[in-house]
Hints:
Layout: H1 2-32, E1 34-39, E2 57-62, H2 63-67, E3 76-80, E4 88-92, E5 99-102, E6 105-109
Antiparallel strand pairs: 1-2, 3-4, 5-6
Amino acid sequence: MAQSQGWVKRYIKAFCKGFFVAVPVAVTFLDRVACVARVEGASMQPSLNPGGSQSSDVVLLNHWKVRNFEVHRGDIVSLVSPKNPEQKIIKRVIALEGDIVRGGRKLKRI
């Protein structure tokens, strides 16, 4: 009986040590490096959700590149919706600072 209680205590102690190390590491990783997100809707078709509204794609959002301002034309980015701050939207970058855009096409760089 004493041996089984000792095993349980060791197990709980090891679990708690692992838990208190893994949770901060996971939270930091998801906040600073990357996270997984589900994409729903048709705005990014055919690149994402080619099946339409019946399916949703899963993407890895790279926080590191955005924090270092490494965004280029053609990249797909996720941002907070200007119309609804509780919603995130996903869009493709078609122009950068200094570019002139008309009708969804880049015209020239200033």
